[in-house]
Amino acid sequence: MRNRNEVGAIETVYDGYRFRSRLEARWAVFFKMARIRYIYEPECFRLPSGKLYLPDFYLPDVNMRTTEDKGGIYVEVKPSRPNFSEMDYLFELSQITGKSVLLIEGRPALWHCFCDAEGDGHYEYTCTHYKNWDVCMRFAKCYKCTRVRVQQAYIQEPCDYCLKTTGVKSPCNEGHPWLVYAVAVARSYRFDERK
Question: Looking at the domain assignment, is residue 4 inside a domain?
Answer without folding.
Answer: no
